[in-house]
TrEMBL record:
One of its GO terms (biological process) is regulation of DNA-templated transcription. CDD domains: LuxR_C_like. This is Helix-turn-helix transcriptional regulator. SUPFAM superfamilies: C-terminal effector domain of the bipartite response regulators. It comes from Nonomuraea diastatica. InterPro entries: Sig_transdc_resp-reg_C-effctor, TrmB-like, Tscrpt_reg_LuxR_C, WH-like_DNA-bd_sf. It holds the Pfam family GerE. One of its GO terms (molecular function) is DNA binding.
Length: 340
């Protein structure tokens, strides 16, 4: 056992030295102990008092006037458990203090209109982004909401996220994520999502998500600086009005999304929700590359789906396919309103 361990238990250097001597050579008198650890008898008496107070030694019933070393498996384990309980209480007090401080800051800001910390923090580089996700995950106490775009997730991302997700869920935090339907095409991503649900997370899917986003405790949101290029970095938003709007967006998409493991329903004329989403993207004038990225599918798959839809609609162009799909009643009114 190292010095760091004994210090954690609250032992002084003298008490630790004395404890090690008593463990190796039980039965030594105070004078002998003082010689062994090279301390004055008065310091030895103080250290013995410390060990007794911590329950590591106690007066012997069999040999009056002598001290008995308590079984370390009992004494040290009990002392460590006590320190763990104290640490937990301090952590809970700190969490309560943080919440109180946030409330006071919000009250002050409401009266003075001058926030004490930046409402937008920009992050550059994968290391910085992952560090902030880890920190915000540790501080999260109620719920996490996430849009996960990009289709199949990289092995590195899933390996980095697994211990963080597990720790958050173990604390009883509610975790909900909306993935792309195309995740079913990638066994590794599907296996990770199934593991998340077994750990207690709620997962749903939808053909398209508006952007990559994570909201922590409805107080902070992490999202990319540029929606179409996550390599440009990310930002942390804390503006309450913006967070409220983003939470409302998530709840709306969550209501319409399909629970993981349930086959997505087909809409008009047997067309799938993914095909409908592709038609909307085509009607908006998006390129094949953009459509593929937003759906989380390969460019080859996107072009095959687009060609099939154009053939079914007897359309000669992608834009005409959107117009004909609207006339057929396949697209919603908001898309139809933008078409001639």
């Amino acid at each position: 056992m190292t010095r760091g361990f004994f210090a954690t238990l609250g032992l002084s250097v003298d008490a630790e030295s004395l404890y090690r001597v008593i463990m190796r050579e039980p039965g030594l008198q105070v004078e002998e102990l003082a010689i062994r650890i090279q301390l004055p008898p008065g310091h030895v008496h103080d250290a013995l008092g410390e060990l007794t107070r911590l329950g590591l030694i106690q007066p012997s019933w069999e040999r009056p006037g002598h001290l008995h070393l308590v079984d370390p498996e009992i004494s040290l384990t009990s002392l460590l458990a006590s320190r763990e309980a104290e640490l937990l209480q301090r952590q809970q007090a700190i969490a309560a203090g943080r919440a109180a401080v946030n409330d006071l800051i919000a009250e002050y800001n409401g009266r003075n209109g001058a926030p004490s910390r930046a409402e937008i923090k920009y992050l550059s580089g994968l290391d910085d982004i992952r560090t902030h996700i880890e920190v915000m995950g540790r501080e999260c106490v109620s719920d996490v909401m996430a849009f996960v775009d990009g289709g199949p997730q990289t092995r590195e991302n899933m390996e980095a996220s697994r211990p963080q997700d597990q720790a958050v869920l173990a604390r009883g935090v509610r975790m909900r994520s909306i993935y792309l339907e195309s995740l079913s095409n990638d066994p590794a991503t599907l296996a990770y999502v199934n593991w998340l649900t077994e750990e207690g997370a709620a997962i749903r899917t939808t053909p398209v998500v508006p952007l990559r986003m994570i909201i922590f405790d409805r107080r902070a949101a992490l999202l990319p600086v540029q929606i179409n290029d996550t390599s440009m970095g990310a930002m942390v938003l804390r503006q309450s009005s913006v967070i409220t709007a983003m939470c409302a967006l998530f709840e709306k998409l969550w209501e319409d999304a399909t629970p993981i493991g349930v086959a997505p329903q087909r809409e008009h004329d047997g067309i799938s929700r993914q095909e409908l989403s592709l038609l909307r993207l085509m009607a908006e004038g998006n390129t094949d590359e953009v459509c593929a990225r937003k759906l989380g599918i390969s460019l080859r798959t996107e072009r095959r789906l687009a060609a099939d839809l154009m053939a079914r609609l007897n359309a000669k162009s992608r834009f005409q396919a959107g117009v004909l799909a609207t006339r057929a009643g396949w697209l919603t009114d908001d898309v139809a309103a933008r078409l001639p």
